[in-house]
Amino acid sequence: MSSNQSNQSTPGNQPERPSPGAAAGPHPVADPAAYLTGRWSIDRTVHDLRTGTEGSFRGSALFRPGTAADGVPDGVLLHREEGQLTWDGTASPATRTLRLRPRPDGTAAVDFADGRPFHDLDLTTGRWTTVHPCAADRYEGTFTVVSADEWHLEWRVSGPAKDQLLRSVYRRQG
């Protein structure tokens, strides 16, 4: 996936314009913790590319500084998602918690709730691609910041028993 936008011209030497509703971006982010702090709505589609099964997740994410009561060190941002997962016609509540550890260079480390490493995050250009090996599976994630109030995340999951595509849109609330 390319992080560069097209700068080509159309006939008549007019620059191409994005179609209505197309995402702008990427939007560079110097401080991921400052950018992400707050509440976000989440609209996620989930596609099982092997079976053709589709689902969705609708909910919210809260990014907030962790506290001693959370059992995390100072400076760590907690990322808590809550919502409803609908899969193959069945709806269920779903949650997840991650930890974001900002670094002085403007990047961050993302860990699972139990502290195991998940992936690095560098939004300084507004786009970041990362890979997370998980047993026999491979998770490839692409983060794209499209504005001060919206970012997209796509995970492609492949492995012996998995072939999935998850696409999420996060929009800042209030």
Comma- or semicolon-separated keywords:
10-stranded antiparallel sheet, 174 residues, disordered N terminus, two-stranded antiparallel ribbon, mainly beta, 1 helix, 3% helix
Structure report:
This protein is mainly β and 174 residues long. The chain has one helix spanning 32-36, and strands spanning 9-10, 14-15, 38-48, 54-65, 77-87, 90-102, 108-112, 117-121, 127-134, 137-147, 150-159, 162-172. A 10-stranded antiparallel sheet has the order 8-7-6-5-4-3-12-11-10-9. A two-stranded antiparallel ribbon has the order 1-2.
Helix count from the secondary structure assignment: 1
Tell me the quaternary state: single chain
Mean pLDDT: 88
Elements, N to C (H/E):
EEHEEEEEEEEEE
Shape: globular
Write the layout of secondary structure elements.
Elements lengths: L8 E2 L3 E2 L16 H5 L1 E11 L5 E12 L11 E11 L2 E13 L5 E5 L4 E5 L5 E8 L2 E11 L2 E10 L2 E11 L2
Antiparallel strand pairs: 1-2, 3-4, 3-12, 4-5, 5-6, 6-7, 7-8, 9-10, 10-11, 11-12
Compact overview of the structure:
The protein is mainly β and 174 residues long. It has one helix spanning 32-36; strands at residues 9-10, 14-15, 38-48, 54-65, 77-87, 90-102, 108-112, 117-121, 127-134, 137-147, 150-159, 162-172.
